[in-house]
Amino acid sequence: MTTDTLTPSSAAAGVDYGITTRDLNLWYAKFQALKGITVNIQKGIITSLIGPSGCGKTTLLRCFNRVNERYGYVTTKGEIKLLGKNIYDEDVSLIELRKSVGMVFQRPNPLPLSVYENVVFGLRIHDDKGLKKSDRDDAVEKALTEVGLWNDLKDRLDEKAITLQLEQQQKLCIARLLPLKPEIILMDEPCSALDVSGTRAIEELMFALKGRYTIVIVTHNMAQARRSSDECIFMLMGELVEHSRTTDLFITPKNRKTAEYIEGRYG
Amino acid sequence: MSVPASSTAGLFTETPFIRKKRRTERLAQCLFGAMALAMVIPLLLILGYLVFKAAPLLSWDFLTTNPTNGMRKGGIWSALLGTVYLVVISLCISAPIGVLAAVYLNEYAKDNWFTRIVNLSVVNLAGVPSIVHALFGLGAFVLFARLDRSILAASLTLAIMTMPVIIASTKEALASVPVSFREACWNVGATRWQTIKAIVLPNSISGILTGVILQVSRTAGETAPIMFTGAVFYRNIPEGNVFAYGIKDQCMALSMHLYTVTTQVTNAPEALPYAIAVTLLGTVLLVNATAIVFRVWLRNRKKW
Fold first, then answer.
1. Contact B203/A112, CB-based, under 8 Å?
2. What is the pLDDT of residues A27-68, one digit of tens each?
3. Containing H/E element for A125?
4. What is the average pLDDT across B180-194?
């Protein structure tokens, strides 16, 4: 397959890419989890990664902030560029990289701290100038407003984040990334622990955030990929099978395997 | 639509086979319960027996006066204080080293040959009998390091003995902190140390402290490691002064004192060994109870 078939037609020359990979291979010890992934993910849109369990969606997602390296024996070969910068360059600091590439997890994982401290956690660990309390207060208000939690939580900032509803916890986990002004937000099945209204709330939040942030979302839920993403990537057994505009992929899939998967024949 | 009564008569009722299973079930429950109860009985018997036998001697004066008259009279002040010194100093050495080593092993170490060697050493060190620790302490601290027989040498020996257990319990406490907390930290660009400081340690401190405090009883009870390295048969110290021992002094200790009184001293009052044992046990139980209260207090503060 050439790059052309993998790139959506809309992504013609001159389009700004948030994430590009060239021939990305990844092994967990001897098991090859990613095979020759070449992909261009457009900046400022929502791209969904779909495919059956074990196809490498989450692994690919974790490549984008190199957090895979924290999970045991991982070998990565190939090129990953974020905003044109190769993240395997010598001068790349993993700390700065992960600061700019935030991740949201399957189960909301607020830290065992107060709501307020969760939001400013990132600021505190990257704070070398001694931020004033008013700066932190502003950051909390801004981030919580952005995710739509401010009105609910402004009087409960000292409560343990763990006591919030799951949906609020997940929003808080997104709010936690925002004060660091990330470029890219990676979401690993962010709604799988949430109910219908929680899922809707997170999807609406994704729509509100898109444009300013490049969002990549892994999902098991094809209906969600269809509703909420602009472009869609279908993966199977560690390979990228198809990448196109979501509407195209669901209505006129080019690959037979994609067609069978979205019909629900397997997966 | 009603079903004839006769056809439902045998539905869901007990068959002989089920009855047999239920009997076995009850038997198993009783047996296991009895075994569990059997743990309580020895403890109560030991405590009751000791306290009963020790009763004539137990008093505040017994704790605060030195032994006199060839240990047949007086109290156990110098032994009690000696044990306190040994426990406190040895834990001051072993707890920081053990906890920090465990943090390294659990949070930083990659799974390579070095880590495996360290882990293997910890396990093996924990399995070394205390008398061997005693000989090592004698060779390494008393003779080689020229500390002579002293509180310091004995404490170091005890520290070597307790360290592996502290490492193991601390590792367990650290491992019980959910990985998702760490993931959350990594993904906002926290360094390992920031993750440890802000999240991992505050959420495992109760488990770590419990592990450390439980070593108090072991340290207080061991005789072998200290009898070659710093504990003595008899020593007279100023009564009522908690700083009566210096770090280079030799000291008495409760465990050693109990041993000498029972085996070396003739004509000691019958209640004396029991009174020493009750004091030793009381001290340890007091520390353990404090540990439990402290742990409950810490646990109530954490919510996840």
1. yes
2. 988 899 999 999 999 999 999 999 998 888 999 999 998 888
3. helix A115-125
4. 89
Contacts of A121 in chain B (CB under 8 A): 185, 188, 190, 198
pLDDT at A73 over 50: yes
Residue-wise pLDDT tens digits, B282-300: 988 888 888 888 888 877 7
- Mean per-residue pLDDT over chain B, rounded: 88
Closest by Cα among A94, A70, A168, A26 to B179 = A70
Residue A78, classified by CB atoms within 10 Å of its CB into exposed (0-12), middle (13-18) or buried (19+), is: middle
Q: How confident is the model at residue A1 (pLDDT cuts 50, 70, 90)?
A: very low
Instruction: Test B188 with A98 for CB contact under 8 angstroms.
Output: yes
Quick: pLDDT tens for B167-178: 999 999 999 999
Q: Which of A125, A174, A180, A189 to mutate to test the interface with B (most CBs of B within 10 A)?
A: A125
List of domains in chain B: 76-301 (1.10.3720.10)
pLDDT for position A14:
61
The residue of chain A with its CA nearest to that of B203 is: A112
Inform me whether the pLDDT recorded for A186 exceeds 90.
Answer: yes
CA of A119, closest CA in chain B: separation in Å? 11
Instruction: Determine the average pLDDT of the residues in A159-186.
Output: 91
pLDDT at A215 over 60: yes
B179/A contact by beta carbon, under 8 A? no
Q: Region of B12 please: left (phi>0), alpha (psi -120 to 50) or beta.
A: left
DSSP character string of chain B: -PPPHHHHTTTTPPPHHHHHHHHHHHHHHHHHHHHHHHHHHHHHHHHHHHHHHHTTT-SHHHHHS-EETTTTEE--HHHHHHHHHHHHHHHHHHHHHHHHHHHIIIII--SSHHHHHHHHHHHHHHTS-HHHHHHHHIIIIIIIS---SSHHHHHHHHHHHHHHHHHHHHHHHHHTS-HHHHHHHHTTT--HHHHIIIIIHHHHHHHHHHHHHHHHHHHHH--HHHHTTTB-S-----TT-TT-S-TTS-B--HHHHHHHHHHT-TT--THHHHHHHHHHHHHHHHHHHHHHHHHHHHHHH---
Q: How many CB atoms lie within 10 A of CB B262?
A: 14
Q: Which domains does chain A have, with CATH numbers?
A: 3-263 (3.40.50.300)
Count of residues in chain A: 267
At residue A7, what is the residue type? T
